[in-house]
Structures are given as C-alpha cells and as structure tokens.
C-alpha cells in the first residue's frame, strides 16, 4: 500500500500561510485554523471555563485574523502571537461578562471527568474555585508556561504582582 504523494509533502510553514492569508487565500486561513484552533481552544477553555465561550473566542480570533495579520509584524513565532491574542480575547470576554453580571453555566459532570483521575479533577476544581485574577495567573504560568514578565504585560500588572498572585493562589 502506498501513501498519496500529498501525504509525504512537508507541511506548509506558518509564514507562507500568513502571506497567503494576506493575499486573500481563504484556504490558507482554513489551514491555519486546522493547525492551531485546537490548541487555542484549549487555552481559551482553561481561561473562560466554558466550552461555548472558548469556541466563541477562537471564532472571534479567526474571523478577525485576516485583518489582524495585515498589522502583524513577524518578530517571533506565529503560534506565540496567536496564543497572546487568544489570551487577550478570553480576558476581554471575561471582563465584559463580569461587567454585565453574567454567570457562566457549569459544564456537565460527565464532560468534566473525561477519564481524568480523581486527583486531576480535584486539582482542576481547586484552580477553578480561585478568584479570576489568581486563577488567570495560575493558568498562564503553570499550565501555559508564560513567564511572569509576559503575564504582567498581558494583564497590565507588574511582574511582582504576577508573582504575588501565583503565591497567593
């Protein structure tokens, strides 16, 4: 059995897809979505704690991506920039919901467990029970691996405040 030649082709680099999106190629936008939406959705889910909110964050990101890429300066990896935009969109959505007094509905218990161990479930619940400002720092630092400097920049706080919030959490 032989594989189709297309399966043997190396993946198109993100930089080439960005250039194609800038040129108006909807297929390139779809390729970027296929490549990065899952990871960005998981990040948004950890921040928003709502699957529907996370899906809307990713949708908002990719709907506005052609316009945003027109301003994007390729100074680093595209995936790092996409993660930063996702965090900003998720935090903006959380602030808007808090301002409106909205309350997120809990996901179903069956969806929560997903085969996870009791310890993982307890840890997830403990993190989710933290106040938003502490929970956000924990997720960005421990789960996503951002530095305190990056967290400070994303949240508009000092590096020391990020460190204190993590310690308090």
- Helicity, in percent? over 70%
Proportion of strand residues: under 5%
Q: Could you give the order of the helices and strands? A: HHHHHHHHHH
Structural class label: mainly alpha
Largest sheet report: none
* Poorly predicted ranges: 102-112
Rounded to the nearest angstrom, the distance between the terminal CA atoms is 54 Å
Computed Rg: 18 Å
Mean pLDDT: 83
> How many distinct beta strands?
0
Tally of contiguous helical segments: 10
Shape: globular
Describe it.
The chain has ten helices and no strands. Helix 4 (51-71) packs across helix 5 and helix 9 (148-155) packs across helix 10 (159-168). It is globular, with a radius of gyration of 18 Å. With 169 residues, the protein is an all-alpha fold. It is 75% helix and 0% strand. The longest helix has 23 residues, at 26-48. The model is unreliable at 102-112 (pLDDT under 50).
């Amino acid at each position: 059995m032989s594989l189709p030649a297309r399966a043997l082709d190396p993946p198109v680099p993100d930089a080439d897809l960005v250039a194609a999106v800038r040129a108006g190629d909807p297929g390139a936008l779809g390729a970027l979505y296929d490549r990065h939406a899952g990871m960005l959705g998981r990040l948004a889910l950890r921040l928003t704690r709502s699957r529907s909110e996370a899906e809307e964050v990713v949708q908002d990101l990719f709907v506005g991506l052609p316009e945003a890429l027109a301003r994007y300066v390729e100074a680093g990896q595209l995936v790092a920039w996409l993660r930063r935009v996702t965090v900003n969109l998720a935090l903006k959505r959380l602030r808007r919901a808090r301002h409106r007094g909205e309350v997120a509905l809990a996901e179903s218990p069956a969806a929560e467990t997903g085969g996870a161990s009791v310890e993982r479930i307890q840890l997830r619940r403990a993190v989710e029970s933290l106040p938003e400002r502490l929970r956000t720092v924990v997720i960005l630092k421990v789960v996503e691996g951002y530095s305190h400097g990056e967290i400070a920049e994303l949240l508009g706080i000092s590096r020391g405040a990020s460190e204190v919030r993590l310690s308090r959490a």
